[in-house]
Specification:
six-stranded mixed sheet; 6 helices; UPF0012_CS; C-N_Hydrolase_sf; CN hydrolase domain-containing protein; C-N_Hydrolase; alpha/beta; single chain
């Protein structure tokens, strides 16, 4: 099974309407469609751009205001997924549930279905600055191209949760991210490579670029998309099928061959999934 994925280095800048946001998203989707992409990944917190629209007094909206856009966000990406017949991981959007805010990744299927995965590990800045809550459970998602998981940014830094996703059958982790400096970016990037090696899976990663000068915690972004593989002979030596130019507004695209994963798990130079010492530590299966 081979399928094509694109990852969007989404450029954040001040906008004046939801329609402007929708037009920018569709631009990226049209571009990915021209390359034949079947899955399109947007980054974490891309909908914070909507906060820059501001209120009647010209002040930027707060994180508490963001859930008011939920219905329009879902309708927009669901409509695009159906229109262009692609799977869209619509980055993350902030939802309110039981008076608590959650950072939730969304998968939009070509047939109109919508799946959700709340971020499971919350950074100190998200807790202190935005009072974000943590999701309570991990799901994997069946598609006609295989089983995937959505783990957001900080999630990928925890080996246990990716082990669980692989044990549940995920061959591809889509990781929407948002980091404001080189330190945060490299934490996510390096651990994405580690997770691909440990679990013999693909990781599709992307982040925000640009800035939102009026929006708290979004004034700086440092991002680069990457399509990451295990490090073994069937794959590129650096474990990279594609990567973007740092902090540029762009899309990257590559083909994921699941048969190569199955082959290296059985007879690769190393067989890290099979060789786990589950007599010494937890077997997530």
């Amino acid at each position: 099974m081979t399928f094509r994925v694109s990852a969007v280095q989404y450029h954040l800048h001040t906008i004046s309407s939801f329609e402007e946001f929708a037009a920018q998203c569709e631009h990226y989707i049209k571009t990915a469609e021209e390359y034949g992409a079947e899955f399109i990944l947007f980054p974490e917190f891309l909908t914070t751009q909507l906060m820059s629209i501001g209120d009647a007094e010209g002040r930027a909206l707060s994180i508490e205001d963001l859930p008011q856009f939920t219905e329009r966000y879902r309708e927009m990406f669901s409509g695009f997924a159906k229109k262009y017949q692609v799977h869209i991981i619509g980055g993350t959007h902030v939802l309110r549930r039981n008076e608590k805010l959650y950072n939730v990744a969304h998968l939009f299927y070509p047939d109109g279905r919508i799946a959700e995965q709340a971020k499971l590990h919350i950074t100190p800045a998200e807790v202190e600055g935005w009072n974000m809550g943590a999701g309570e459970g991990l799901e994997v998602f069946e598609t006609d191209k295989g089983t995937i998981a959505m783990l957001t940014c900080y999630d990928i830094e925890f080996p246990e949760i990716v082990r669980m996703a692989k044990a549940k059958g995920a061959d591809v982790i889509f990781c929407p991210s948002c980091t404001d400096d080189r330190h945060g970016f490299h934490r996510v990037r390096y651990t994405s490579h580690a997770r691909a090696i440990e679990n013999q899976i693909y990781v599709v990663l992307t982040g925000t670029v640009g800035s939102l000068p009026t929006v708290d915690l979004m004034r700086a972004n440092f991002g680069q998309a990457a399509i990451i593989t295990p490090n073994d002979i069937p794959f590129p030596p650096k474990g990279l099928l594609a990567e973007g130019e740092i902090n540029d507004d762009m899309i990257i695209t590559a083909d994921l061959d699941l048969e190569l994963l199955y082959r290296v798990r059985e007879r690769g130079s190393v067989t890290t999934w099979r060789d786990r010492r589950t007599d010494l530590y937890t077997d997530w299966t």
